[in-house]
Design brief:
The chain has 429 residues and is mainly alpha-helical. 66% of the residues lie in helices and 0% in strands. The longest helix has 15 residues, at 7-21. Keywords: Signal.
């Protein structure tokens, strides 16, 4: 189906959103602070999730980083050995985009067991954000924070096990750490645990349980929880389909800049599901997600430009978008890119390029790519025509359930007895 982010997308954004906007975190240190300098630092840089700071703490993306840095520098002068203040000042520097100044403070605070520093530095090392990438050390730091009961570190350690980053991939461990974070009310952990239930990874597949965790995450305004719950509601997985609510959830996520919400809402507008069809609006939403380098959104936007739906038809732009999407791993885009080269739309006819991109999709077992490879070999487009190779590709595509390939296979078999003729290639949505 067009425009739907996959399950991995949700898990991948779990760590990414934490780093991009610095999800607030607490340091395991006494909440009672002495002196106006420390109080001022806490007021500017503490997280509302730290014990004792629920009323004055703030999200880092709403932090006045200039004020926070100034206040926490004064606090550090007053308490130069305070790991908590070092963690706060590092958080302020990092939120301001200054990893160079944040890093030594994070290192010092982490050395003293500060959970905030352990979590953020662990993520930095895992992703190579502002430091040379070192997934193994990143996982070690995350484990220290996770075992101390810190939800942010628990969720990130879950991601490390989920994707085998610095540790051996282990879905059971991933689900265990996601659950630890989720049960503390961390919205990203709740969404990620929901995805494990949705996909049956580390836990039995259970759409009802997945929806329950997504609901908890969405209730906190988390865009990944909103987008993931929207998918279940759109498809009626574990519950009655509710495309109208799915559209509302995608809208909430999209308005927070979430590319999955933007892309999925664009799909609903393109197809008139849960909302009135609006191709121009679909194109706008796909563009927003494409601007965040989302391959699927680039593919979906390319389809609109190729067909001139909601936008002025532009084969050159479609070709560029398909290329970017295919290079990002979207194999449906590779199929359609091959067809543009095959048909000379937006470019000169180039059978070598057509073969390259179609082969890429076929090698990934993409059904339409397999079918189109059959067409290429049947007609000798950039290759020596080979009926048996064509039939092999058609068979592989048919085995994946692609009906057109089954028709091509039957037709080619009939041609051996003097019947049939033609062959069909097609693009994919």
């Amino acid at each position: 189906m067009i425009g739907k982010s996959n399950g991995n997308g949700g898990r991948m954004t779990g760590r990414g959103l934490v780093l991009a906007v610095m999800m607030p975190a607490l340091a395991w240190a006494p909440a009672a602070l002495a002196g106006p300098a420390l109080d001022a630092c806490a007021a500017e840089a503490a997280s509302q999730f730290e014990p004792g700071f629920a009323e004055i703490g703030k999200d880092s993306w709403t932090m006045d980083t200039v004020a926070a840095i100034a206040a926490c520098k004064k606090a550090l002068s007053a308490e130069p050995d305070s790991a908590q203040v070092k963690g706060w000042l590092a958080r302020a520097y990092f939120a301001a985009g200054d990893s160079a100044l944040a890093l030594p403070l994070f290192e010092a605070a982490a050395e003293d067991g500060n959970a905030l520093a352990l979590a953020i530095l662990g993520d930095m090392l895992t992703t190579g954000d502002g430091v040379p990438q070192d997934m193994e050390r990143g996982a070690q730091l995350l484990r220290q924070g996770a075992e101390a009961g810190f939800a942010l570190a628990q969720n990130s350690l879950g991601l490390s096990y989920d994707f085998g980053e610095g540790v051996a991939q282990d879905y059971d461990e991933a689900a265990r750490w996601y659950r630890a974070a989720a049960e503390q009310g961390m919205s990203k952990g709740q969404s990620n645990l929901g995805l494990m239930y949705q996909d049956g990874l580390g836990v039995p597949q259970d759409y009802v349980a997945a929806a329950a965790w997504f609901e908890k995450s969405a209730a906190q305004g988390d865009p990944s929880g909103q987008a993931n719950l929207g998918i279940l509601l759109q498809d009626g997985l574990g519950q009655k389909a509710d495309p109208e609510r799915a559209a509302e959830l995608y809208r909430l996520a999209a308005e927070q800049g979430d590319m999955y919400g933007q892309n999925n809402l664009g799909s609903l507008y393109e197809n008139g599901i849960g909302v009135e069809e609006d191709l121009a609006r679909a194109a706008e939403l796909y563009q927003q997600a494409a601007d965040q380098d989302m391959p699927l959104a680039k593919h979906n936007l390319a389809l609109l430009y190729e067909d001139g739906r909601g936008v002025k038809q532009d084969y050159v732009r479609a070709l560029r978008l398909y290329t970017q999407a295919a290079e990002g791993g979207e194999m449906r885009a590779a199929v359609n890119l091959g067809l543009l080269y095959m048909d000379g739309k937006g470019t000169d006819v180039d059978y070598e390029a057509a073969l390259k991109w179609t082969q890429l999709a076929a090698d990934a077992n993409q059904p339409v790519g397999l079918n189109n490879m059959g067409y290429i070999y049947e007609h000798g487009l950039g290759v020596t025509a080979n009926r048996q190779t064509a039939m092999d590709y058609y068979q592989r595509s048919a085995d994946e359930g692609y009906e057109l390939a089954s028709e091509n296979l039957v037709r080619l078999s009939k041609e051996q007895t003097g019947q049939g003729g033609g062959g069909t290639k097609t693009k994919t949505k």
